Amino acid sequence: MVKWAITKILPCILLLLCPNITLAQITAELNFITKNNPILPVKEKEQSATIFKETSEVKIACLCGIRLYQLFVSSQQELAVCNFTPSCSHFGMAAIKRFGAFYGILMTSDRIQRCNGFGRRYYPVHPFTGKSWDPIDPYYLKIRLW
Amino acid sequence: MTPLSLCLALSLFFIPFFANPSRAGDTALDLADSLLKIGNNNEAITEYKRFICFNPEDHRISDAYYKIGLAYRRQKKWDDALSALRKSLAMATDDSLRDERRISIGIIFLVSQRYSAAEFDLLRVSSFSKNPYLQQKALFFLGICHLYTFHWAQAQKAFHQCFSPSEKISQIDSLLTEARHLKYKSPFLAKWLSTILPGMGQIYVGDWRNGLNALAINGLTSYLLLDALVERRFQDALLSHLSLFERYYRGNRQRAEKMARDHNEHLNRLWADRIIENLAANNKRK
Amino acid sequence: MSKKITILLSIGLLASLPPQAWSKADYYTPENIHRFADWLYHQGDYLRAAGEYQRYLFSANLSVFPDSLLYKIGLCYQLGDMPKRAKIYYQRIIDHHSQSELSDRAQYQIARIYFDLGKYDESISYIETKVRRLAFPQMRLRMNLLLGCNYLFQKRWKLAHHHLASLLSSHKNSQLDSLIIGLNDFALQGERLPYKSGTLAGLLSTTIPGMGKLYVGRFTDGLYSFILVGLTGWQAYEGFHRDGTHSSKGWIYGSLGAIFYLGNIYGSVVAAKIHNEKVEDNLLQKIRVQLNWDIP
C-alpha cells in the first residue's frame, strides 16, 4: 500500500508543486511582439487607385498628369527637393481632388511660387519630416466675380 | 497503517502548502483575475485599482500593478502599461519578481520600437538574475531585440547562451550564420556606377524600371543642354537646361545610393522575419 | 486510533487556515464605492471615477440623487473629454435641484462646455437665456465674463470691449477684476490689429507680380514670384520673337507664365487673408494663456 502511494500519488503532488512555466508562454510573448511590431512594414495603398473614382474628366486629366509626373519625373530628381510637407505635387493632387481643377491649378501655382528655401519662417515645422508644414485648407478662397 | 490513515497523514503534511495566507481569496482580486481572463481589460483594471485603493500595504499590490500593466498592454496603451509595470517593479518584494517585471518592461519597449531601452533591461536580467529560467527568458528576448536591430552576431551569441544544443536550434544558428554573410549591395558602388552612366546604379541594385527611367530622363536633359550649346543658345542652356540636367543627374546618383541602402535594409528585414518565424515554429514543436 | 487521527486532523486544519480569510473587506458597500470613486478622481482617472460614482448612485438606493454627486459626475466627464455626457448630468441638476447653488454652477459649466468646444454661438445664446435667472451674483458675474470671452473668440472686438467695460463698471472690487481688465485690454488690442486688405494685395500683384506679397509682408515669396513670372514671360517673349506664333518654346513658357501670373494674384489675396487670420490667432493665443481658469 505504501509502495502504491509513493509510486502513484507522490509524483502527482510533486508535479503540482513544480513551477509550470512553459515554452508556450514565451511563444505567446513572441507572437505578441511580432503582431504589434512587424519587422516587414505594411505596404501603403497606392494613390493611383483613387484617381479613377473621380467623375470630372478635367480633374482626371489633371490628376493623371500629376501622377505621371510623380512616377516618372519626380522620382528621379534629388532627394528631399520640396521644402514643404506635403510636397508640391501631393498638394496639387489634394487641391484638385477637393476643390476642382480651376482652384486646384491656382493653388498649385501659388504653392510652387512659395516653394523656396527662404520663406521657412512663415510656416510651422512638421514634427516628423522637419520640413515646413503647409496643408491645403487655409489656401482655399471662394472667388466671386459678380 | 490503513490506506485512509495514510491519505489523511499525507494531506496533513501538504495542507500548509496550499493554505498559504498569500492565496487567501479577495473578492476584488478574484473578480479582476476572471475579468482579465475573459478579456474584459477595462473592468479588470477597475477591480485591480479597487483592490489597491483599499489595501495599499498589502503584499499583493505588486502583482495587482503587474496585471494592470498586462491589461493596458492588451489595450496597446504602452505608456500606461509601462507606468503600471514600473510601479509593480518598485513594489516587488524579491529579486525573481523584479526580474520578471523587468522582462515584461523590456517586451513593451520592444513592441514600441525602443530597442536600446529594451536591450538595457533585458541585458540587466540576463547578466545579474539569480533565477536560471528568467536568465534564459531574458536572453531569448535579448536575441529577439538584436534581430530587430539586425545585430546578427549578438543575436547568435544570445541564442547560444539561451538554448541547449539541439537539431532545431542548429537550424536557427545556421540561418544566423548566413545572415552575417548576406550579399549586400554597396551604396558607394551604386552611386559611382550612376555617375558613369545614369541608371546603371539602379540596375546594379536590381531596379530596372527606375534605372531605365533615370537613363531616359538624363538622356533627354543632356540632349536638350547639348543641343542648346551646339546651336549657341546660351541663354536657354544656362537658364533651363543646365539646371534641369544638374537636378536629374544629381538625383540619379543620390537615388542609386538610397536604393542600395533600402535594398540592404529590406534584405535584413526579410532575414530577421524568417529567423523569428523559425523560432516561433521551433517553440511550438517543443 | 480513529480518535487520534481525528484530533490530529482538526489541529492541522486549524493551524493551516489563515486568519485573514475570515476578515475580507466588502468593497461593494455604497460607502466603499464612494471612497474608491474619490480615490480614482484624485488619481486623475476621471472616466473610471465617473463610472464608480454612478455605481454608487444605484447601489445607495437613494430616493433623490444628490446634486453634489451629479455635479461631480459631470465634472469627471468634462475632465475626461466627454462633454456631451457631462452636459446630461449638469442638466439633471438644473431640472431637479433648481434652487441650489450647484444648479447655477451647472448652467455655467454647460455654457463653458460649448465655449471649450468652439461653439461660441451656442454658448452665447445659452448664456443670454440663462444669465438673468441665476440666483447667485458670483455665478452671474462668471457667466457674463464667459460671454465676453465668447465675443473675443468670435473676434467681435468692439462688442467684447463694450460688454467687458460695462461689466467692470458694474462689478467693481470683485475677485475677477484683474481678469476683466486683462480681457478688456485684449479687446482694445483686437480693435487695433494691423489687418491687410486682400483687394489691395490682389490689385498690386496684378500691376507688378509679387508686389501684393511684399505688401502683406512676405518679402521672399514676393521676390520669388516676381522672378518666376518675369523669367517665364521673358522666355515666352524670346520664343515668339524668334520663331513667331509657331514657337513651341513661346507657347510652353507663355502658358507657364500665365499660370504663374494668375497664381501670383490668387496667392497675394490668400496671403492677406492668412496674415489677418494669423494676427488674430496670435492675439487669441495670448488670451488663452492669460485665461488661467481651472474648472471649479
Description:
The complex is a heterotrimer of chains A (146), B (286) and C (296). Chain A is mostly helical. Chain A has a domain at 52-139. Helix content of chain A is 53%, strand content 3%. Chain A contains six helices and two strands, in the order H-H-H-H-E-H-H-E. Chain A has a two-stranded parallel ribbon. The longest helix of chain A has 17 residues, at 57-73. Residues 10-21 of chain A have low confidence and may be disordered. With 286 residues, chain B is mostly helical. Among the domains of chain B are: 27-93, Alpha Horseshoe (Serine Threonine Protein Phosphatase 5, Tetratricopeptide repeat); 187-285. In chain B, helix 7 packs antiparallel against helix 8 (132-148) and helix 13 runs antiparallel to helix 14 (234-285). Residues 19-24 of chain B have low confidence and may be disordered. Chain C is mostly helical and 296 residues long. Among the domains of chain C are: 64-150, Alpha Horseshoe (Serine Threonine Protein Phosphatase 5, Tetratricopeptide repeat); 198-288. The termini of chain C are far apart. Residues 18-23 of chain C have low confidence and may be disordered. The chains are: A mainly alpha (146), B mainly alpha (286), C mainly alpha (296). Chains in contact: A-B, A-C, B-C. Chain A binds chain B through residues 1-2, 5, 9, 13, 17, 19, 21, 23-24, 26-27, 29-34, 36-41, 72-73, 75-79, 81, and chain B through 1, 3, 6-7, 10, 14, 17, 76, 107, 110-113, 133, 137, 140-141, 144, 147-148, 210, 213-214, 217-218, 247-248, 250-252, 254-255, 258, 269-270, 272-273, 276, 279-280, 283-284, 286.
| Count of individual helical segments of chain C | 14
Q: List how many beta strands of chain C DSSP finds.
A: 0
Distance between the termini of chain C: 75 Å
Mean residue pLDDT of chain C: 88
Helix share bin of chain C: over 70%
Order of helices and strands of chain C: HHHHHHHHHHHHHH
List the defining traits of the structure above.
heterotrimer, B: 286 residues, mainly alpha, Serine Threonine Protein Phosphatase 5, Tetratricopeptide repeat, 0% strand, C: 296 residues, 14 helices, 77% helix
